Amino acid sequence: MLAASKGGTTCRGGGFDVDYSLLAIYMSPSRQEFESQIFHSLISHLYIARMEFRYLVISFSILFFLAHAGESHGRLSVPDDEDLWQSVWPNTPIPTALRDLLNPLPSGVEIYDLPRQIDDGHNPRILFYKEDLHLGKTMKVQFYKSEAPPLSVSLWQKEIKDPEKEVLTFADVCMRNDEAKGEHRFCATSLGSLMGFAISKMGKNIQALSSLFVNKQEEYTVEGVQNLGDKAVTCHRLNFQKVAFYCHEVHQTTSFMVQLVAADGTKTQTLVVCHSDTSSMNHQLLQHLMGVHPQTKPVCHFLGNKTILWVPNLVMDATYETNIVA
């Protein structure tokens, strides 16, 4: 569980948000990577400034941390991910699931995968209605452990390229599509900017969750549902070789931790996000996956293991504590 004192001052109209992305460029151990981090950080901040002035960010706590570290060693130090994390959440290690997502993908894996074609008559469903999320409900679902496409990203993209015909780039996913109505997004290329976006939206008193599941079943019965509230930031690891996360906050969204059990008794826990307002979703994709028009009724989807969900700090039921990423 991530627990810290409240923070994350937000001031609109010429103010600023406090986060940690500006100084994340100091995390790189080599000059080449350091310069690359600077470039990506500048691009990210220009992109952010275009969307909202409130993403002009300064990290006072990390400035102090770096100054203290540099003073101790007689030069400016380059903190690693653990140091950065500890400066915000002392005595709390980086969650294992998050640490794994910070590693570069194997060489050759550079294309961001979009949802596969869905035939509801034969293949598992990706989306489902909120009314189906109740105890005793049997669902036919499938969890892809490594190739799972972050569906949440595609649902909010106005234009979707066919990855079999066109190569997708970081700019395609993060910059060339405008924000959807009710969506605030940011593409993070470092742990610092990832933390920064979540903190700027929710303060420091937050926790990070992820799905925990097996990859051998299709039919599950809902055994438990815990409502995590209507405020969350979702960060999806994009399938580029270099680290990149698509983070967004979507209004009129409710998150749940769901316990599922398979016919053979195998239990799994997964995160579910339900959207009450679907008017800004990609019309073609929603029609294809659900056969409904936007804003007809609330729809939900599972979050895969390449996604981190930030929610306000709360006391989880004992049943779900193993699913807290901390």
TrEMBL record:
Domain BURP: 127-313
A Pfam family that the UniProt record links to this protein: BURP
Coiled coil: none
InterPro entries assigned to the protein according to its UniProt record, in alphabetical order: BURP (IPR044816), BURP_dom (IPR004873)
Protein name listed in UniProt: BURP domain-containing protein
Domain of life: Eukaryota
PROSITE patterns found in the cross-reference section: BURP (PS51277)
Lineage: Eukaryota, Viridiplantae, Streptophyta, Embryophyta, Tracheophyta
Transmembrane segments: none
